[in-house]
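User: Here's a protein and a ligand (nicotinamide-adenine-dinucleotide). What would the complex look like?
Assistant: Let me lay out the input and then the predicted complex.
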Amino acid sequence: MEKSLYQKNAIVTGGALGIGRETSILLAKKGAHVIVSDINLTEGNKVVTEIESFGGSAEFIKCDVTCEQEIVTLVETFKFRNKRLDIMVNNAGIANKPTFMHKVTTEVWNRLILMDLTSVFWCQKYATKLMLGDRIGGSIINVASIAGLGASPSLGPYCVAKAGVIELTTTGALEVARFGVRINAVCPGWTETAILDVAGERGKDAMEKNIPMGRLGKPREVANLIGFLASEESSFITGSVYRVDGGTRS
Ligand SMILES: NC(=O)c1ccc[n+]([C@@H]2O[C@H](COP(=O)([O-])OP(=O)(O)OC[C@H]3O[C@@H](n4cnc5c(N)ncnc54)[C@H](O)[C@@H]3O)[C@@H](O)[C@H]2O)c1
């Protein structure tokens, strides 16, 4: 694989499993030094070991994205080493258990919005500030969802949070476009990871049947798009929102 991210520094939140894991590995294969960040130490450290096994460079830093101060500390890691933060992938996220909107409790609502929207606001905010300060730009990639682009009954809080991530991306991107900081969003369709467990086997079958390509996505297929947006190959792209969903339109 071409080392298009040689000497770049990257952070991936939720990097221990699923899409974040594949993204961490892909960015490292492209030559970046990757901070794999997550609340899951065991799986996060396994990703680092895997990256090191092919000669890549990575480290694990624990960060719970529901805590603003932990995000500040994570994002500023490279600053304290006198290095740049080039790539920030805001990927950590959870889904709500399927529930109609009128039955969603305030507790579930607040948890989802904190985890899937406010955390991305904090990650984008502090990464942008740092990249602006360095005056050499950078690439921020927010992982939203096709659920943020249209209605998905029973996934109300998740849809609202992901729609918010899309607006956070497009608005934030235009504000800093002139300064070389690019902000884009990827919207995966249903992808084979643990997050789909909330839907159960029947729910997963229904999702799969609804995908024109006839199968769930693979985490690697989402990571490929993130890798492109992280690299200079996408140097004229900002404020954009990309679907990676096997053709799903509902
Ligand atoms: N899999 C899908 O079908 C799908 C579809 C659309 C969007 N997405 C989005 O992709 C992103 C990654 O999800 P995934 O499918 O890989 O799920 P996953 O459950 O496999 O991975 C999520 C990761 O986030 C970590 N995490 C959970 N809470 C955290 C916290 N408080 N702080 C830090 N890390 C935390 C988990 O430990 C895990 O490593 C999420 O934002 C999700 O909404 C997934």
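Summary: The chain has one domain: 9-243.
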